[in-house]
Amino acid sequence: MALVATVAVVGRTNAGKSTLVNALVGEKVSIVSPVEQTTRNTIRGIVADPRGQLVLLDTPGLHKAVGTLGTLLNRMARRSAAGADITCVVFDAAQEPQLEDIGWMQRIAKEKPEKVVFVLNKADKSPFFEKMFRDAWGEAVTGNGERNRPLWVGATHGEATKPSEASAEGTGNGERVEPLWVKSISTTEGGAKPVLDALFGFAEEGELLFDEDIVTDYPRKLAIADVIREKYLAHLHQELPHELGIIVKRVVDEGSRWKSEAEVLVNRPSQKPIVIGRAASTIKAVRKAAERELKEVFGVPVSLELWVNVEPNWMKNDRLLAEMGYLGGLV
Questions:
Q1: Residue 300: CB partners within 8 Å, gap ≥ 6?
Q2: Position 228 pLDDT exceeds 70
Q3: DSSP labels for 159-223?
């Protein structure tokens, strides 16, 4: 028997969740961008390790919701956390705790999940606000009528303080949250190892959930759409961060190569020239960059055909949101 667990990787938007998931899996399964709301679906990354298997749920970042899509993304993150064996909350500790960070702490303190890992990400940055996050957790717990100090794992080792040493105080009713705190540098080789060790420390014996050679079960159309959107985010930066939607209409497997057709949605006619670019420069650059990465991901050449359509308020259109995979199991 092997050690297995499902892990909800949650936290506020842009905390480094997708980068951490990619580092743990060892391959790119989630798109990465400095733009908020990069991850819009719950993506499963599968970690194969001599100890066993972890199924990582890379969730949309919790943020101040604006409109239908924002509300759906927050709901996805919360539901994924509720259904997983382990909750892994990622904090960008290179910044002071934000409102959404406090919100996750309060949720953990209130709901008392059995297995929780708090990851202080970007441990190579200075300043590094470790104390402020630990103090914020203490306040979150105190606000729920409890006192507790979290366990601690260093950035370069996997040993944690024993529960009896971590806190001598409890609630008197045996109910308390004792998250395992870990420092991580997800962008460097081996920098996520303390997180991996902590997660396997919570895993239990069982049958493998997926074949050992699978790194993700994310649907092919959604994976292609994510790569296209990532390349657009890299080219457009903040020009259209949340108003760009990608729908992959079809993928034709021709054996030695794939052909895929995708629709790029914008909200207003004025946005269409931005997405296309002068003399179609932007859409051509995005297509070429996406085709290069898709070949690496799938192991076969992928030719893309992209066209741009104006779809006012597409982020409130249930049919379009469902086609993009945002409504699965939520409505």
A1: 256, 257, 258
A2: yes
A3: -B--HHHH-S---SSS----PEEEEE-TTSTTTTHHHHHHHHHH-EEE--SS-TT-SB---HHHH
Distance of alpha carbon 147 from alpha carbon 104, whole angstroms: 17
Beta strand 52-58 with 2-10 is parallel
List pLDDT tens digits, range 103-137. 889 989 988 888 999 999 999 999 999 999 999 99
Integer angstrom CA distances of residue 320 from 3, 63, 123, 238, 311 = 39, 22, 39, 23, 10
Contact between 204 and 51 (Cβ < 8 Å): no
pLDDT digits (tens, 9 = 90+) for 251-284: 898 888 999 999 999 989 999 999 999 999 999 9
At residue 308, φ and ψ (nearest 5 deg) are -110, 130
Give the C-alpha separation, 159 to 198, whole Å. 9
Predicted model pTM: 0.63
Cis amide bond preceding 269, omega within 30: no
Give all domains of the chain, ordered by start, each with its CATH number: 2-206 (3.40.50.300), 220-323 (3.30.300.20)
